[in-house]
Write a structure and sequence with these properties.
The protein has about 250 residues and is mostly helical. It has 10 helices and 2 strands; from the N terminus they run H-H-H-H-H-E-E-H-H-H-H-H.
């Protein structure tokens, strides 16, 4: 199955070879550290670390650009008005529209934090096969039922998308027109119901097939201890995350 996230999982960068448990823990620690940044003076360090990790992953710039588009539009829609409505220090004003310093700094901080977190998440997903990631979550103590559900959702999300595309194409061939009227709403409601029904029936068939093949019997898989290089990378990430937490307390 081809997805938008696993095209570059076979690269040979150090980040791709990083032991999955250490990678997941280390990058997750950085994500939480970035989420806690509240002072604009930490922005250059946060962005610099993010760029360094992305360069270390050897993922192409196109991978980031094509996947940051929709999160970027969401950020623009949510925070674009901050420089004009938040704060008291006016930097520029024209015909009742004022650009305020506090709002501008808040926008820069939110944007840098948001983009850094999204980039680290993309690095994690883009350098680790999803099956490996799910297994890593299980070895770290996440219940098997949750990891299995995550895998199934990930697997059949694309199948549902293909079914939606095919159904929409069939509706258009039969004269469906996306206009804002009662008939259109009825058609969309029927489309949604059809997809839900098909998804439920497919989930039943998949579950029965899994039970027939022994699902639920349980298994254990031995895990080798991480190599020293992976432990060093984990230590650097945890130290960096702790440094951001301490700096945030000092800078207030």
């Amino acid at each position: 199955m081809k997805t938008g996230l696993d095209h570059y999982v076979d690269l040979q960068s150090w980040l791709h070879q990083w032991e999955p448990r250490c990678k997941l823990i280390g990058l997750t620690a950085l994500i939480f550290a970035f989420a806690g940044v509240q002072n604009w003076r930490l922005i250059p360090y946060m962005v610099g670390i993010t760029l360094a990790i992305y360069a270390l992953s050897q993922l192409p710039l196109k991978f980031w650009l094509t996947r940051i588009r929709y999160p970027g539009l969401f950020l623009l829609g949510m925070a674009a008005l901050l420089p004009f409505v938040a704060g008291e220090t006016v930097l520029w004003s024209l015909r009742g529209i004022s650009l305020r310093q506090e709002g501008l700094l808040a926008l820069v901080l939110i944007s840098a934090r948001f983009l850094s977190i999204i980039t680290v998440v993309l690095i994690l997903l883009g350098s680790t096969p999803f099956l490996t990631l799910a297994h890593t979550l299980r070895t770290l103590g996440v219940p098997a039922l949750l990891t299995d559900m995550l895998l199934l959702v990930y697997r059949y999300l694309f199948e549902t998308g293909e079914s939606l595309t095919q159904t929409q194409r069939s509706m258009k061939l039969r004269g469906f027109s996306p206009k804002l009227e009662r008939k259109t709403l009825q058609g969309l409601a029927s489309l949604t119901g059809t997809l839900l029904t098909r998804s439920y029936e497919r989930s039943e068939r998949v579950y029965q097939a899994m039970r027939t093949r022994g699902y639920g019997a349980g298994y254990r898989r031995a895990n080798r201890p991480p190599a020293w290089g992976s432990l060093v990378g984990l230590s650097l990430c945890l130290t960096t995350a702790l440094g951001f937490a301490i700096a945030g307390v000092i800078l207030g």
